[in-house]
TrEMBL record:
<protein>
    <submittedName>
        <fullName>Histidine triad nucleotide-binding protein</fullName>
    </submittedName>
</protein>
<dbReference type="Pfam" id="PF01230">
    <property type="entry name" value="HIT"/>
</dbReference>
<dbReference type="InterPro" id="IPR019808">
    <property type="entry name" value="Histidine_triad_CS"/>
</dbReference>
<dbReference type="InterPro" id="IPR036265">
    <property type="entry name" value="HIT-like_sf"/>
</dbReference>
<dbReference type="InterPro" id="IPR011146">
    <property type="entry name" value="HIT-like"/>
</dbReference>
<feature type="short sequence motif" description="Histidine triad motif">
    <location>
        <begin position="96"/>
        <end position="100"/>
    </location>
</feature>
<feature type="domain" description="HIT">
    <location>
        <begin position="3"/>
        <end position="112"/>
    </location>
</feature>
<feature type="active site" description="Tele-AMP-histidine intermediate">
    <location>
        <position position="98"/>
    </location>
</feature>
<dbReference type="InterPro" id="IPR001310">
    <property type="entry name" value="Histidine_triad_HIT"/>
</dbReference>
<dbReference type="GO" id="GO:0003824">
    <property type="term" value="F:catalytic activity"/>
</dbReference>
Length: 113
């Protein structure tokens, strides 16, 4: 069982900021910004490549949850970044799809070389 599934199952503690029947959101243990929240589906979906048609509502829900969290944390107006990685060359380390919400400082444009 992956670490995120263990967090969903309450086998590993996490600093949860949001939870409903479909998703969970919690603080990253190795934050890359002053605010770094991970938003995950409770369903184990390894990568973006494993998404199917029936996941459309779930992915839309994740973005609405991100919006809600950003508002609650007071960063919705100043701005925040959402990021999802896919597979090793895309920077994915945990194979349970997850969305990063970064905020709390100016993040600037992302430059890919």
């Amino acid at each position: 069982m992956c670490i995120f599934c263990k967090i969903v199952n309450k086998e590993i503690p996490a600093k949860v900021v949001y939870e409903d029947d479909k998703v969970m959101a919690f603080h990253d243990i190795n934050p890359q910004a002053p605010i770094h929240i991970l938003i995950i589906p409770k369903e184990h979906i390894p990568t973006v490549n494993d998404l199917e048609e029936n996941h459309k509502e779930l992915i839309g829900h994740i973005f609405l949850v991100a919006k809600k969290i950003a508002k609650e944390l007071g960063v919705d107006e100043k701005g925040y970044r959402m990021l999802v990685n896919c597979n090793s060359d895309g920077g994915q380390e945990i194979y349970h799809i997850h969305f990063h919400l970064f905020a709390g400082k100016p993040l600037g444009p992302m430059i890919c070389k």
